[in-house]
Specification:
With 287 residues, this protein is an alpha/beta fold. Helix content is 37%, strand content 19%. Bound molecules: adenosine monophosphate. The site of adenosine monophosphate has 17 residues, from helix 2 and strand 5.
């Protein structure tokens, strides 16, 4: 089957309702395009579990702050279309801005608490913009399961919270981070990096590897694990660190001593590019 492109929200919903009435399980992979292996791994996960896969491409203006990269965000629609077709994705929902945010649009969708830290602290528009657009997309695509990447760990937990709190009836799956050969987490924003910055960007995974090594040798103090990551980050003075945290992996609460599952999370800016990464401490990370 070839990939069918759907632009109209109304058509998307009609299609979703027809597929549901036929008893099909719908898998959904929301993206902002500029697709890479990380996105494609989500499509594969959906194809493995669902009868029909819908991917979406929409560079969502509401999740970018006024000083952020909305205008220059990479847009590679033709190539994305080919990649999705090659993966056997059945539908691509690609609405335009006016279709999702018509004149008079005035609604907000906001998750409390879990959004005041990490990326939520430095990018106040980001998570409310994500929950708003994902709520709309869930209503239009009506998926049974939605596939998100661990790469955006906080985003995934926040979307899962929203889906539960607002009774969307959508299961939110978190899929593993896909990395480049040297460990850098794949991201559409990596293409902004200069050759030098691309080399420097490895410091994120190096910091996570260091924290993981310390954790595996028995370190359970969140503060000491954070310090060990900071030490690694300091080896690249050009990296402007936004946050380095070790938090409860389920609630994103700060920890003193790690007892349950914990996530190490970091964000930094290299030149004009913001990069994030994370790791569940104790899981394999061989770079
Ligand atoms: P984006 O297009 O950046 O909004 O990302 C769309 C989806 O792909 C989100 O659920 C991301 O978490 C996921 N994603 C992005 N990069 C990766 C990666 N390297 N590995 C796994 N999933 C990813």
């Amino acid at each position: 089957m070839t990939l069918r492109i759907v632009e109209s929200p109304r058509e998307m919903r009609k299609l979703a309702e027809t597929l549901r009435a036929e008893g099909k399980t719908l898998g959904f992979v929301p993206t902002m395009g500029a697709l890479h292996e990380g996105h494609l791994s989500l499509v594969r996960a959906s194809r493995g579990e669902c009868q029909v896969t819908v991917a979406s491409i929409f560079v969502n203006p509401t999740q970018f702050g006024p000083q952020e990269d909305f205008e220059r965000y990479p847009r590679t629609f033709e190539r994305d279309r080919e990649l999705l077709e090659r993966e056997g994705c059945e539908f691509l929902f690609a609405p335009n801005r006016a279709a999702l945010y018509p004149e008079g649009f005035a609604t907000a969708v906001r998750v409390e608490r879990m959004t005041d830290r990490l990326c939520g602290a430095s990018r106040p528009s980001f998570l409310p913009g994500v929950t708003l657009v994902v709520a709309k997309l869930f209503n239009l695509v009506r998926p049974h399961i939605a596939f998100f990447g661990q790469k955006d760990y906080q985003q995934c937990l926040v979307v899962r919270r929203m889906a539960e709190d607002l009774d969307f009836g959508v299961e939110v799956r978190m899929c593993p981070i896909v990395r480049e050969a040297d460990g850098l987490a794949m991201s559409s924003r990596n293409r902004y990096l200069s050759v030098t910055e691309r080399t420097q960007a490895r410091v994120l995974v190096r910091a996570l590897v260091e924290a993981n090594r310390a954790y595996l040798s028995g370190e359970r103090s969140a503060e000491r694990l954070i310090d060990s990551m900071r030490d690694v980050l300091e080896t690249v003075p050009q990296a402007r660190v936004d946050y380095v945290e070790v938090m409860d992996a389920g609630t994103l609460e700060r920890l003193n001593r790690i007892e349950g599952k914990a996530a190490a999370l970091l964000a930094l800016n290299l030149g004009e590019t913001r990069l994030i990464d994370n790791h569940i401490l104790g899981e394999a990370l061989d770079y």
